Structures
1.
Amino acid sequence: MEIKRYQNKYCFKKRSVAEHMWSVSKIAEGLAIWESKKFKNKVDMAKVLQKAINHDMIEQTTGDILGPTKKKTPAMKEAVEEIEELAFNEVIEKELPKSWRNQFRSYILNPKTDDIEGQIIRAADIIDTIIESIEEIKLGNDIFKAVLLDSSKSLIQVDLVSVRYFIKYAITDFEVDIEEYFGKELHDFRESLNFDPKVFEACQDIGSDL
């Protein structure tokens, strides 16, 4: 899938939808490991990865319809969902064995479900956008400052302990000023987070550090 992301923005580093899906898959895998190993939550890893590698597959048919455009109005959101449903029915479904169709319909058209696997996909998608945005900003592309702020606000809305752990500890790996780049809302949210060290004592197969 050579469809490019951010078709309405100048990018120093061009990325395809396929590259994005691979990156989201790796991030989702990491979040799922944290959820299951560090925090002892039940996660279906196979479901996470199947959702991740398919979550933007519909764009091979519709193209990359930008998120803000999709959600501009309720009518627009409904229209895009209808277009995606038609695209699946008319193109993608015909390429799948009949016994796979219902399962893949869910993975492709509704990957960000309310269960833990769907929320991991939601978070991984946002985190990859954060990574893309910081790369562009560091290269001098200030267009992505607004994208980064919006993504930061979205990330703190995802109710996963792995996401809170990412915000508290992993976000420093970007080596940027957190309030300046991610905004005061995420900065203050991060400052409010505390993790009991005892949470990690039972984790023998992975370290409690990053």
2.
Amino acid sequence: MAYLTLDRPKLQANFDHLEGLLGARGIDWGITTKLLCGNKLFLNEVIRLGRLELLDSRISNLRAIKELNPEAQTVYIKPPASALIEELVTWADVSFNTELETIRAISAEAVKQNKTHLIIIMIEMGDLREGVLREDIVAFYEQVFRLPNIRIIGIGTNLNCLNGVMPSEDKLIQLGLYKTIIELKNGVEIQWVSAGTTVTLPLLIAGGLPAAINHFRIGEALFFGQDLVHENTFEAMHDDVLELHAQVIELAEKPTTPSGVLGKNPFGQTAEGDAEGPSTSHRAILDVGYLDISPQYLTPVDPRLEVIGGSSDMLVLNVGDNEAGLEVGSYVTFRLKYMGALHLMNSPYIDKFVLDGSGEKISELPAPQPVGG
């Protein structure tokens, strides 16, 4: 069976690098865990890093975090659906919000549960996903400040998540100015200007991040070491914290061009032959397919292997003359892109293991420690 691994030492190294990078500038940050799809084995590896502000877009995942560590601060990072308000207040300490009626409902539920719910109000800064329009910000905040059991701890924005609008010094300066206006208008202090994500790290490294931006939300850089601006890996970070391992279930030398009348395959595509290439090559079929991941998100670690395509539950590789020495039963290892890892984490057909640095594969959470002496 194909399986996914999380390398503990490499995750720790990426975390330490981010801690140094952000800590040196006095920036607070939380770890975005939505990639892990609530998998407690992998969530536990994040929790053991020690930074206990964890952000997710599924309440069930926040519940899993609280069950592992009740002391963690859980943050729900999209505007909540009205049907989820009770669960939201139960399992999320903080939530991102853009709708006044939703915040009123959260306030009423927080009163009922005798809790103070913290919120970050998201501002529309040009990417056109979620966010209060800038001309409405002052009036919006004034109404929220009146609500019981609600405390505003931040102003934030999302960039690059829908239309690819990149964070810039100018946009982030504007966001910091909105915070100042709101504070002066209402006689309050707002803790966070939350506008940093993985895509903002190059701006930080280049020295272009405005001083007002004091909170980051990071997932992709932690798990993939990705510089999304320059499309490479950050220096001193690992891009292989997560890897897929799939087993060869057939290996044979076959023609490179299909034969027979060609129609559309299940994906609506019509195959084409390779008139300029060799007439035959070795092909390996692996035990993973579109049910688990789209082949476009997979890169074989061995550059001699090429992904040709796949079907619902099989992946086909061109292995040429098989210089890699593959056999039936061999495992092929793949580097992953973010969306590919997300699909694998959400697939019940893929086993998950932690690599502890000694070669051991861990598949279960550690036994709970006894309380008291």
3.
Amino acid sequence: MKRQFLGLLARVYVLQFAMEVPATVAMLAEMLMEYGFQVDIGTVRPLLRALQMDGYLESVLRDGIGRVYQLTEQGREELASSRLRIDELYRRLHSPNGEDAAASTVNG
């Protein structure tokens, strides 16, 4: 369960990073490591491939840099949706009884 959650969280981080700047595999692995993920290029590549297959990322060759990954429009939509779910979870976790945020989301 923990591994699945970390995998989902890594997906969101990669989408965010790819939105900020087109990045190489090495750059994305380094960014994930800065946030405490225990990854290397070999573990990041399958994640990038899956995100490409889902239509969230595209890769292009850049002179002097190599292959970089950038967010697609579909990836922007997925990132926005993920952010909303994360924000809702955050509100629930920080609500005194854990229910107020869910009720305000439904009623509000």
4.
Amino acid sequence: MTPAEALARRRVLWMNALFAAGLAFALPWFAAGLLAHRWDPARGTLWATHHAYGVRTFWFGVIGLLAPVAVPEIGVGLLVVVWLWCAVRLGRAFLAWDRAEWIMDPGRFV
């Protein structure tokens, strides 16, 4: 593994760890989203898919967090569904990171 790939792998680990902490507290979620957008997505390596996956997870989580404000009748139920959905995506991201493999089709919902 080249030093650039090792750095990209470490960045993805930090991003995933912050997303995981963000499931309990909102601030780390936003920090992870900022890092996913700011860090170079390591174009041409398998870590590029991890960055794209992290960006999508961030935005879907934010939209899911704000949706109950728009539709308060289903607020708590929607928050639970979005939280579980984000937890599943994070589990998938950690497994792909551990195996050092691509996250196939980061454009999918799950």
